[in-house]
Amino acid sequence: MRILGIESSCDETAIAVISGNKDILAVEKSVVLSQVKIHAKYGGVVPEVAARKHLEAIFPMIQNELDPQGKEIDVIAVTAGPGLASALRTGVEVAKTLAWVWKKPLIPVSHIEGHIYASWLNGEAQPVFPALCLIVSGGHTELILMQNHGVYSRIGETLDDAAGEAFDKTAKMIGLPYPGGPEIARYAKEGSPDAFDFPRGLINRPNFDFSFSGLKTAVLYKLRENETRINDIQFKRDISASIQEAIIDVLVKKTMKAVKQVNPASIILAGGVSANEALRERLQESARQVGVPLFVPKLEYSMDNAAMIAAAGFYRAKDEKNYLNPILLKADPNLDLI
Amino acid sequence: METHITHSEEATREVAEEFLSTLKGGEVIELVGDLGSGKTTFVRGLVQALGSTARVKSPTFTVMNEYPTQSEKIKLVVHLDLYRFKEAGQLEALAINDYIKPDSIIVIEWPDIFEEPVLRADRKVMFRHIDEATREIQFV
């Protein structure tokens, strides 16, 4: 079976074709056009600008990559949400149109589910169920237990800010450009993670929820106390390393606490923040200690892409109940996985 | 001016609900206050009180989030965060005016990030961080 994946939920326009043979997936094509440079000048993704850029990009992409009759495609999978309303609509309307004209089944996919399925694009080594998923991105920080394909329960989530947002907001405070996560990681490399003791929200609570808003406030006050050092590069590095340490510490400890309780057969790290090297290493180390395999997407599939959407679509396509009449599909900016 | 002191996130959400009862729909509302002073919690309270189950997150990366509600009077909450914006001229790209409708409200965090005021707002709410759990919220 060959699946066309389409993704336009935020600032990346992407299409991909993957083929599934039994349960092994192979990426045949994956094209991503990032708008990150366009949005950098605003310091965030501007929905109207993103929607316009998606429209400009998507048809040339389809023309270049696909047969005009859609001959090689069996199923079309598209991100239906969550994301920016006007950005999502471009991918959704294009997918509906193609499904209608080519008479192919259409499958709506959650963007978050796509990020989870990025870990099925590593070839033969695939996650085993039950899998505990740590999802960390600019808009999400949650722990999801996946009992089987498409079967999810949420066991914990952030009560306020997402981890990616904590990275970006604190980055801006110390004068680092957007997107702040990679910048903090870069400065952190030469800094001391013990220089400042930032709060680890909810770390001793018996549940699996997260909170990062106290960290934001603590950094703000630390900067006010050290106003004269704000332009000192080593100070910035130390602050960055301490922020990163506080965030990773909570993410890893809460995840391992959940591992102890739900006893999963594998752990999956998903979402844009999974590109953070220090997080990958720390979680890998902790998972190794308890003997549970950790699955992390390849870097190219950890950021937004359409191969992960097609991968999720492949498993959904096994059940015809998941096929949707193209006319009925609507983008849902707040679509929930569960 | 009306001042509220809250001691929990839940109390902040209740203050938001009270504020909501003073709205007609169509308003642009500025939320002014430091990081961690309760602005996003306040928006969460507005969206919940309007009957949406959406989990409100600060739109730092996405600049703008939209929350359809269950209410007849206010059908959509548009939540903006200008924290990362650099110049007032860039606001044009957001096409904020297109979102002003009689059955929507627009709430804007960090409207004061630019040196000069650039937005026409109907209402303003100020937030102050007093201590870890305590916030001061003023309807101006």
From TrEMBL, chain A:
Domain Gcp-like: 29-310
Main location per the UniProt record: cytoplasm
Binding site for Fe cation: H111, H115, D304
EC code(s) of this entry: 2.3.1.234
Superkingdom assignment: Bacteria
Free-text comment on the cofactor: Binds 1 Fe(2+) ion per subunit.
Residues annotated as binding substrate: I135, V136, S137, G138, G139, D168, G181, N276
Molecular function GO terms recorded: iron ion binding; tRNA N(6)-L-threonylcarbamoyladenine synthase activity
Catalysis: reaction(s): L-threonylcarbamoyladenylate + adenosine(37) in tRNA = N(6)-L-threonylcarbamoyladenosine(37) in tRNA + AMP + H(+)
CDD domains given in the database record: ASKHA_NBD_TsaD_bac
Signal sequence range: none
GO annotation terms (biological process): tRNA threonylcarbamoyladenosine modification
Cofactors, names only: Fe(2+)
GO cellular component: cytoplasm
Keywords: Acyltransferase, Cytoplasm, Iron, Metal-binding, Transferase, tRNA processing
Subcellular localization: Cytoplasm
Physiological role: Required for the formation of a threonylcarbamoyl group on adenosine at position 37 (t(6)A37) in tRNAs that read codons beginning with adenine. Is involved in the transfer of the threonylcarbamoyl moiety of threonylcarbamoyl-AMP (TC-AMP) to the N6 group of A37, together with TsaE and TsaB. TsaD likely plays a direct catalytic role in this reaction.
Family: Belongs to the KAE1 / TsaD family.
Protein known as: tRNA N6-adenosine threonylcarbamoyltransferase
Protein species of origin: Candidatus Uhrbacteria bacterium CG_4_9_14_3_um_filter_41_35
UniProtKB/TrEMBL annotation, chain B:
PANTHER family in alphabetical order: TRNA THREONYLCARBAMOYLADENOSINE BIOSYNTHESIS PROTEIN TSAE (PTHR33540:SF2)
Sequence similarity: Belongs to the TsaE family.
Gene3D superfamilies assigned to the protein according to its UniProt record, in alphabetical order: P-loop containing nucleotide triphosphate hydrolases
Keyword tRNA processing: yes
Native species: Candidatus Uhrbacteria bacterium CG_4_9_14_3_um_filter_41_35
Source organism phylogeny: Bacteria, Candidatus Uhriibacteriota
Cell cycle found in the keyword field: no
Protein name as catalogued: tRNA threonylcarbamoyladenosine biosynthesis protein TsaE
Chief place of localization: cytoplasm
Keywords on record: ATP-binding, Cytoplasm, Magnesium, Metal-binding, Nucleotide-binding, Transferase, tRNA processing
GO annotation (BP), single: tRNA threonylcarbamoyladenosine modification
One CC-aspect GO term: cytoplasm
UniProt GO molecular function: ATP binding; metal ion binding; transferase activity
Compartment(s): Cytoplasm
